[in-house]
Amino acid sequence: MKKQLLYSTMFTFLGISTGLAQITLTQSDMPQVGTAAITASDTSYNGTAGTIGTGQTWNFSTLLNHRTDAYFFAAANTQPGFSNFSGSNICMPSPPADSMWTFMTSTASGFFMNGLYNTGSSFPAPVFKYNPPMQLIKLPCTYNTTFTNTAKGSLKIAVASPPIDSMEFRTSINQSSIMDAWGTLVTPAGSFSTLRQKRTDISTDSTFYKAFGSWIFDSESIDTTINYTWWANNKHYPILEMSDDGAGVKGSVNYLLSSAVGLTEISKRESSIITFPNPAQNEMNFILPDGTATLQVMDIAGKVIGSHEVKGGEFKIDVSGLQNGCYSFTYSSHDGINNLRGKLIVSH
Does 18 map to a domain? Predict the structure, then answer.
């Protein structure tokens, strides 16, 4: 996925995997309906993806956390825009402010991205569809598993610039992938037995315009991106992702902080505060805006039952001792910019 995916019971911190043995990935290791994942991004990484081969150890324990993001996977047929992607069975909604839904298909033979549905004003058209779809991984897979694929997509928009009345943007992505290594991956979240995927995407982007009733070629560009992805069993999301555009791995490296499956709801607010799971049984998780603030939790009578000084990113509160029912929270940033409210439900 361009937005790295490529696009979680209760959320828990990732456990420690022990032992050094090659693993096999299947559909059950991919995102599921009800999967949620919390990732961190190191936006200043400048290094390599490490070595290939068997029995490797990759130590990325010093990665920083400059940004925290939350991803949730829902049933595709419950999401806006599904009629454009009727073959999809899973969807990753973006935060509400982005107004974007990524539609995908999960099968026993692979995980595929079908396209995007977008209702935001920054996107020139509501539907961008791959046909054939982009393949993210081949399943089942183990060391040296390979695949090749060609994904194609197009987007047409009206243009009020006579004699040009419309433009079309076409993309063709030649993909080649190999599971080029296995071993132990160490991140700030723990140590994991992983398979590493190296996927090379060669994208040819072409622009055409329509004038006097005919489509005319305008321009073309070709870009190559090498994507490295580390996968583990039972995590349902990549453990680590990075890309090399030919100048080395520079910029954003994403790694998994926590994941869980079986969630029926993840609350996303325009305020950019995310709470999950909601209802909660033992823990309530918050993804908070950057900056220092006071987070208070109140009961139905408005009595403050918890007050926390927070600094943004991921924050957890223990709700195991609270009675079942509806609670509320207030978030007051110390700079006075954000004064936000929300509701929480506890159900043991």
Answer: yes
Torsion, Cα of 43, 64, 101, 73 (10° steps):
160
What is the count of structural domains for the chain? 2
In this structure, the answer to whether residues 247 and 286 fall within a common structural domain is: no
Does residue 104 lie within any of the structural domains?
Answer: yes
Token pair for 182: 């296995």
CATH label of the domain that carries residue 300: 2.60.40.3080
| CA dist., res. 280 & res. 241, Å (int) | 30
User: Are residues 261 and 32 in contact, defined by beta-carbon separation less than 8 angstroms?
Assistant: yes
Tell me: do 34 and 81 sit in the same domain.
yes
Q: Is the torsion defined by CA of 302, 304, 305, 306 positive or negative?
A: positive
Cα 129 to Cα 152: distance, rounded to the nearest angstrom: 8
Among residues 107, 68, 76, the alpha carbon closest in space to that of 93 is found at: 76
End-to-end CA distance of the chain: 37
pLDDT in tens, 215-253: 999 999 999 999 999 999 999 999 999 998 777 777 789
Distance CA 122, CA 318 (A): 39
Say if residue 98 is in the same domain as residue 247.
yes
Long-range contact set of residues 143-146: C-beta below 8 Å, sequence gap at least 24: 143/22, 143/54, 143/179, 143/181, 143/182, 143/195, 144/178, 144/179, 144/180, 145/178, 145/179, 146/176, 146/177, 146/178, 146/179
Q: Both 38 and 103 in a single domain?
A: yes
- CA 29 to chain CA centroid, nearest Å: 15
Q: Which of 137, 142, 103 is nearest to 24 (CA)?
A: 142
Cis peptide before 140 (omega within 30 of 0): yes
Range of the domain at 282: 267-346
Could you report the per-residue pLDDT of 177-190, keeping only the tens digit for each? 999 999 999 999 99
- This prediction's pTM: 0.76
